[in-house]
C-alpha cells in the first residue's frame, strides 16, 4: 500500500541551468543552449515538406483527380493547401523558434501552469487521432497492393 501514498511518488528536484533553486523548473524546461541548435533552414524545409508526403495528402490529390481536375491543377491545389497549412504552423512555432523553448513551456505564458496541461493533453490526443487516420488509410492501401502483388506472381 506504500504506492498509494502521494509522497512515495515524489521525485527529487532536478537542478535548472538558469532558474534559481526555489523556482519550479528543471533542465528540460530551460531554453535550448546554442550548442544544441542543430536545425538549419534546410532542416525546417524538409520537416515541413514531410507533411506533404502522407497518405492523407495523396488521397486528397486523388480526390481532386477523381473530380476532374488536371494534373497541373491538382499539384497547384495541393501546394496552395500546403501554404495555407504552413501559415498557422509557422506562427505556432515562432515562439519556440525565437526563444528556443518547448511547446509545453511556451503555452504556460498564455494558459498558466495547470491549464497548460490541458493544451498539451489535447495536442497529444489530436496526434493520436491523426495517427489513427493515417493508419486507417495505410491499411486500406495494403489490400490493393497485396492483390496486385499476387497478380504479378
TrEMBL record:
It is found in: Membrane. The chain crosses the membrane at residues 75-94, 114-133. It is a multi-pass membrane protein. The keyword Transmembrane helix applies. GO terms for cellular component: plasma membrane. Belongs to the purine-cytosine permease (2.A.39) family. This is Putative NCS1 allantoate transporter. It comes from Aspergillus calidoustus.
